[in-house]
Design brief:
This protein has one domain. The chain is built from seven helices and no strands. Helix 2 packs antiparallel against helix 6 and helix 4 runs antiparallel to helix 5. The model has no long low-confidence stretch (mean pLDDT 93).
Length: 160
């Protein structure tokens, strides 16, 4: 069995309850989007100077995080990597738009979404009666979005 199949199956073990699955369809993308927003705003003099000089809002810690996550996904599955690349780009674009409100607003909105989504996740797991997978292994924080995407691929007849 391929590593991605093992990881998706193991992640799925603690996500059998219909309500918990529905919570994950809302909260996992919200967490991913807001986490990018929070990381986006981490200060770093070199990156900030480069952005000011070039006017390019995509160079920040959030984008670097997405590059690192993409390298993880490409090792697991090219089709999932391509789907996650599309999603990551959309979330980065959304964060660029949100950042136009200013850093402070971006941070507060991202933090609010992040906190509410995690509360939702823990409620979903309380209903499920099983602990979140990431408590066993942190890589499951990256598997959650891929787990949702693999269902989309199944519906479309795409092998991941």
């Amino acid at each position: 069995m391929r590593k991605i199949d093992q990881l998706l199956a193991e992640y799925g073990e603690s996500h059998q309850n219909h309500t918990n699955k529905m919570v994950h369809w809302i909260c996992v993308p919200a967490i991913m989007f807001s986490l990018i927003g929070l990381i986006w705003n981490l200060p770093h003099a070199f990156l900030q100077n480069w952005v000011q000089q070039t006017g390019h809002p995509w160079v920040n810690w959030g984008s670097l995080f997405l590059v690192a996550a993409s390298l993880y996904y490409v090792r697991l599955s090219i089709p999932l990597f391509l789907g996650m690349l599309f999603i990551s780009t959309a979330f980065a674009w959304g964060n660029v738009q949100l950042h136009t409100l200013g850093s402070t607003a971006h941070i507060f909105i991202s933090f609010g979404v992040f906190a509410v989504a995690w509360v939702g996740q823990f409620i979903g797991h309380k209903i499920e009666g099983k602990k979140p997978s990431f408590l066993k292994d942190l890589q499951f924080l990256l598997i959650g979005p891929a787990w949702l995407l693999h269902f989309v691929y199944q519906k479309m007849g795409i092998r991941w």
